[in-house]
User: Fold these one by one.
Assistant:
Number 1:
Amino acid sequence: MSINRVMISGNLTRDPELRSTASGMAVLNLGVAVNDRRKNQQTGEWEDYANFIDCVMFGTRAEAIAQYLSKGTKVAIEGKLRYRQWESQQGEKRSKVEVAVDDIEFMSSRGEGGGGGGGGTRLPASGPSPDPMPTDDEIPF
């Protein structure tokens, strides 16, 4: 058995990009900055370092929430890691690991953008997950 679950919270690094596939499915691309703390070996001080994480949502939920997100919005995201490969227009092979969003929670109040704390509205990304995680009540031990 393997587990592929990711939980991150941070601020959107850019306005979300909403597109559609050839079949008409909505695709929402998000960039999230998640801070990490490390001790600087030279100064001995703790410093924040940003990790930039690409996230993607699919379906009608992605289309519906796109209007409520903007650069600086604080979000909490739950999903799974997904490895993707493609070929650029110049013929170069490209790849990346991104988070396929299952649930998203707005941590900023509406119109707050770059602030913290606030709203806390949780929305599933797109209906039930095809492989839902069991709840505590469903685990037999």
Number 2:
Amino acid sequence: MTRKILLVKMGAAPSGVKAKCGDFEDWIRAAGDLSKDETSVTDFVQENQPPNLDSLLGAIVAGSVSMVSEDNDNVRRLCSWVRELIKNRVPTLGICYGHQLMARALGGSVFRNPMGREIGLVEVKLSSAGLADPLFAGLGSTLRVCASHMESVALPPEGAIVLAENEQDEFQAMRMADRAWGVQFHPEINSATMKAIIDDRTEALQTEGFNLSLLRTRLVDSADGVRLLRNFVRLCRDVDAARGS
């Protein structure tokens, strides 16, 4: 059986961003060096039936314009399914919304970050556990990555290990089980996509007091997110090789 990495969505990227840069799965494939043949996509807004767990090499729960704090059937259904992924030790990576949803699914909590929105190119520092974690293999102690979120993990699930933090968010990355990781930032987003996101949210950002010119001029492509995603893909393949394909 040829197993695939499942890219899980809760809806599409904003239409203006999608028209310029593609959708969440396109960004993940490009940064992770994954072809369409190596991946499948499930959108829980469209209620696509997820594939059988035995067919999965791994799963990446993508970002979303939705909020994890929303309490609706789709969120609850995705939480339940993520618990099954982790229970069955399918390698799983949550990105931004996915990071928060994994925390909620495992008993943690999510809130509107009192420090406000985090957006643009940011720096996060790895903890000693992060420096030793295979997800961050080959990376330095400080990562430069893109971020775009208003909610954050308020309380990690029991047993979670904090792997990275910054002044805006003390839970920028966590290991939530032996094969389950979450990152609050967006390792898949490059500078062009981040610019499109900033442009799409210009009115809200101006209202919130952001300097849009400064946000845009700070943007650079960073190899840190790309390395992280490719580390995750390698970990998925290593698990698959160990169990026999």
